[in-house]
From TrEMBL:
Name assigned to this protein: GGDEF domain-containing protein
Entry superkingdom: Bacteria
CDD domains: GGDEF (cd01949)
SUPFAM superfamilies per the UniProt record, alphabetical: GAF domain-like, Nucleotide cyclase
PROSITE patterns (alphabetical): GGDEF
Residues in GGDEF domain copies: 208-327
InterPro entries per the UniProt record, alphabetical: Diguanylate_Cyclase, GAF, GAF-like_dom_sf, GGDEF_dom, Nucleotide_cyclase, Rev_trsase/Diguanyl_cyclase
PANTHER family noted in UniProt: DIGUANYLATE CYCLASE DGCM-RELATED, REGULATORY COMPONENTS OF SENSORY TRANSDUCTION SYSTEM
């Protein structure tokens, strides 16, 4: 591809500011000019590769479909041990092995094309990937400059969009009194719901890892009944302080009302599970035990699905801790 052709492609794909819109344009463009059975932009995080945007005519790939990174052909492309363009996966042993495993699951990959998308700090964000069921007989090698161009465009849009989101989040953290619980200083239910609604689209756009954690105080009713509501208020403020001390200042923490708390931890599933263990230990040690449930954010279900799953897990934990008594 000549430099003049590069410029025409860049002009045609002049990227919008939103990363998801740029991904859609790139995938649709590739599906048109390099018609493989499937093209996708993926996110690699928390040991998994998740489809963010797809153009698929053969595999049934949809946004939100996820697989272990260790099962992906892209891992070898990123590591530099496999080419970015492989017309016949049987020619590369590592790719052939994964292709055989995938074929057993009904997913045949005869041709693989991939290129990395990097974040502003140079770390791997994800990939642009193309696949075809049968090996492609026509030459694909001359498409490598196009892949370079498109991945660079996406990396540039990603950096700009991420910076814009970070700036917006910093401004949004200065919440109004109407979104703050006056007793604990945390977000109230209104602030929590507004945060979730605002961030749901952003997290779906980037495929960032996160988990919702729901908590319910195990001892507030007893404190209120035996020591009075003023002592109950101190109990809630202490619970909020323990929670706040255990998480990052950028992770939203809310008192939803009564003795219910909620937070979003913006880390991978394994780290979130470790945090839940540390939260439980810190709360128990501080004399403010809570029933806790957590669930990961997914591109397909978003924060609404994670909240429902975390709430269900929290009530299951409460029944277990109270011998079947949910109250």
């Amino acid at each position: 591809m000549t430099s003049a052709q590069d410029l025409r492609v860049a002009a045609e794909l002049a990227p919008p500011r939103a990363f998801d819109a740029a991904c859609r344009m790139v995938v649709d463009y590739l599906a048109r000019v390099v018609p493989l059975d499937a093209w996708a932009v993926t996110r690699v995080a928390d040991g998994r590769q998740t489809m963010l945007v797809t153009a698929d005519s053969a595999y049934g790939l949809e946004p939100g479909v996820s697989a272990a990174w260790t099962d992906s052909m892209c891992q070898y492309m990123v590591a530099g041990t496999a080419p970015r363009i492989v017309p016949d996966t049987r020619a590369v042993p590592d790719l052939e092995r994964i292709a055989c495993t995938s074929a057993e699951q009904g997913i045949e990959v005869g041709t693989y094309v991939g290129t990395p998308i990097v974040s502003g700090d140079g770390s791997l964000f994800g990939t642009v990937v193309g696949m075809n069921r049968e090996p492609v007989t026509t030459t694909l090698d001359d498409q490598e400059p196009l892949l370079d161009l498109l991945s660079s465009l996406l990396s540039s849009v990603l950096e700009a969009d991420s910076a814009a989101v970070d700036t917006a989040r910093a401004l949004e953290r200065a919440v109004s009194d109407a979104e703050t619980d006056p007793l604990t200083g945390l977000l109230n239910r209104r602030g929590w719901e507004r945060w979730l609604a605002r961030e749901d689209e952003r997290f779906r756009r980037f495929g960032d890892p996160a988990s919702v954690v729901m908590l319910d105080s195990d001892g507030l009713k007893t404190v209120n009944d035996t020591e009075g509501h003023e002592a109950g208020d101190r109990h809630l403020r202490h619970t909020a302080a323990v929670l706040r001390s255990a998480i990052r200042s950028t992770d939203p923490l809310a008192r939803l009302g009564g003795d219910e708390f909620a937070l979003v931890v913006q880390v991978g599933t394994e780290d979130a599970e470790g945090l839940v263990i540390r939260l439980r230990e810190a709360l128990d040690a501080s004399g403010v035990p809570c029933s806790i449930g957590s669930a990961p954010f997914t591109v397909s279900e978003g924060f609404p699905g994670a909240c429902v799953a975390a709430d269900t897990a929290m009530y299951a934990d409460k029944r277990a801790r109270r011998g079947g008594d949910r109250t």
